[in-house]
Each structure stands twice: as structure tokens, then as C-alpha cells.
Amino acid sequence: MAGRRPAGLFVGLCTLDVIQLVDHVPGPDEKLTARDQVVTAGGPATGAAVAFGRLGGRPRLLTGLGSHPLALGVRADLDALGVRVTDLAAGRGQPPAVSSILVTEATGERAVASVNATGQRLRAPAGLAELVESCDIAEFDGHHMDLAVEVAHAARAAGRPTLLDGGSWKDGTERLLASTDVAVCSADFHPPGTASPAETLEFLRDHGVTWAAVTGGAAPIMWAGPGGGGAVDVPETRVVDTLGAGDVLHGALAHQLSGPGPLDGPAFAEALARAAEVASRACASFGTRAWLTAD
Q: Hey, is 181 helix, strand or coil?
């Protein structure tokens, strides 16, 4: 339908991100004054949902936030960005996961500490089949693994494409691959027995993933699919902050892949290229929100 906004279902981590821009990462017992700060909702699936919405999609996030006052701020941030949140930990009184992030001004590199989803086990919501059928694509970041596996299985059964953000190999990832159509992984994603992007792509193919890619920062994105593969160049940009670039890439890729029509090699490479353009724009400003309003 002309003008229809695609719907995306994003499953995974949601955190409170406290981001500080610093001259350098402090050493033991060192105190320093940050040059700037940003406080936002974060997490890979959350960042992808925000990007998907910025590009015109209708994102829904399945995650665990809880009722702590800090969680209310996270929800307010996402509400303002048009991300609908289904909170599967609504009765939980503990604070949400807080990511403490230091971004080095001169390089854009970041240091991150977070408890992530440790200690949380989420159950799928009632009406999962209907929820999945209402979306055009489902994306997962590998956190809340049991939930991700259940939703991915339901998406596969409903004929909805599934996309994995492989930031790192996690316990249970092999179960998620069984219902994954597209996997785009970082260079830090090392399945058992692999030591290179080529071996990672082969591993993913052998575990049933049809389309796969491995990113490496500014290096070309290596991809593989039925009938072959290739490399997609990443646009050059003046890097200010690399935080969340992978999340933006996955949200933009989900938007690209949510349209109708079969996926082939040229279409996959083009989708990766367009997603990389969006992610590169996000790296040109500090924090994970400034790019949303940049020209």
C-alpha cells in the first residue's frame, strides 16, 4: 500500500544510558570534569527501534523496564520518540540497567560498563502470535535470550523476516540462529571455533542463516548469501562518537528489509549500504540523539 509505514518489533535490552564526553578515560582514583553529557534510553534493540522510527517506521519494543522512578524517565524518552514499549517486567521495583559510558573526544571511542540483562528472565506476552503478525520484521539483540528465541520462532511461523544484531556471542545464540533469516554481526561476534569474518559467515550459513554480514567499524562490511557474497564500503565521516552506531545500522537495515519483494544479493548489498550511510551520520555527533535532528 502506497505510503504505508512499516511496523517493526524489536526484542532486547533497554537501559538508562549516562554518556559523558571526556578528554581521556580516567585512571585509578582520578577525577575529571566531563565536557558534555547526554542521558537517554539505550541498549541495542532500543537504539535500533529509535532509528527505525526516525526513518518512518512504527517501532514496538519488547523489553523489561520495571516501575522504578528511573524506568519512568526511560519510558518518557521513548514515548517522545514514538517507540511503543511493552514492558515485560512491569511489576519489578529494582532500577533498570544503567550503562555508564565515557566517550573520548579526540577519537570518538567509548568505554562502557553495564549489568545489561543480568538477573532478568522475561516471558513472552499474551497474544504473542497476534503481535508478531502485526509487524513486518522482527529484530533481536540477543539479550533476554529465552524471550528472543520464543519471539523469533513465532515470527518464523508467521512468515515474518527476522534480523539478529550479533554484538557478541552469548549463551543460547545457537538456538536463536535456528529462527534467524538475516544476521549482521560485529567483528567481536565470535561463534565457537571461528577466528575471522569469513569463518563467522560460514558458521552462520551452516546454522541456517540465509543472509549474513560482519561489520568492522570503518572497514567494508563483508556479507554472504545464497549464491555468493561481497563487500560494502562504509562512507567516510568525521567520527565524533561511535556509541550506538551498530544499533542505528540495525534499525536502518530493518527499515530497508521491511518492504515487500524477495531478497537477493544486490538488494541485500544495497540495504546494507543504505543502512551504513545512516549509521555513519550518527557517528558525526556526540551521543545517540543528536543525529535524529541533524540535517
A: coil
**Strand order across the beta sheet in which 228-232 lies:** 84-87, 58-63, 7-11, 137-140, 162-166, 182-185, 211-216, 219-225, 228-232
226-253 residue pLDDT tens? 989 999 999 999 999 999 999 999 999 9
Sign of CA dihedral 245, 247, 250, 252: negative
Q: Look at residues 210, 124, 205 and name the one whose alpha carbon lies nearest to residue 161.
A: 210
Topology of the domain comprising 11-113+123-293: UDP-N-acetylmuramoyl-L-alanine:D-glutamate ligase (3.40.1190)
Cα-to-chain-centroid distance, residue 143: 10
With a cut of 50, which residues of the chain have pLDDT below it?
Answer: 1-2
pTM of the full predicted structure? 0.96
Question: What's the CA angle centered on 214, arms 43 and 242, to 5 degrees?
Answer: 45
β-sheet bridge partners, residue 219: 216
Residue type, 26: P
Q: Where are the domains of the chain?
A: 11-113+123-293
Kind of pairing, strands 182-185 and 211-216? parallel
Report the distance separating Cα 152 and Cα 11, nearest Å. 9
